[in-house]
Amino acid sequence: MAMTHEEIVKELQDAGALLTGHFKLRSGKHSNRFFQCALVFVDPDRGERLCSALADQIKEKGITAETVISPAVGGLFVGQELARALKLKSIFADKVNDQLVLKRGFSIRPGEKVIIAEDVVTEGGRVQQTIDLVRSLGGIPVAVAIITDRSGGKANFGIPLFSLLQLNLPTYLPEECPMCKEGMDLTTPGSGAGSKA
User: Any long-range contacts for 15-22 (C-beta under 8 Å, 24+ apart)?
Assistant: First the structure.
């Protein structure tokens, strides 16, 4: 049975993954909210439940694939658990000089159908890089699957997008940020969560 919106929000809140403060996002913009997806997977059962719910959305639409790829580091857990739920291969792309590449013996063959998995999308730059990588290797991106869509539904990659939760949270250019104007400490979360910018 599909998880309700309330059940999903409760899972994220119980994990302590919805943070409030003053955050610098990967896009360079600032926000007063941040979704720290890694905290969801501290409890493997919670991560499995959420990714199974995401997989159910994909199955309901009849989308088929052979492989799930995720950009390192944020999407790794999502990609692994989504691939498990869909019974697909799981690979990930490494970042080298701010570009995504396949290493570690991973490969995508021409014509291979691939789902892109990520934890959070705000503007979608890393997901688009992953789609471009798949296409450059001859693969066929068939869907994007994410835990949280922070774009307010604006993210569009030209292929079906599945998310468990849509958040329409404000983001600010640094020079327009009200938290900066108030002198609030700025945190750069993600893989360096907790570090001050």
Answer: 15/39, 15/40, 15/42, 15/43, 15/46, 19/189, 21/184, 21/187, 22/177, 22/179, 22/180, 22/184, 22/185, 22/186, 22/187
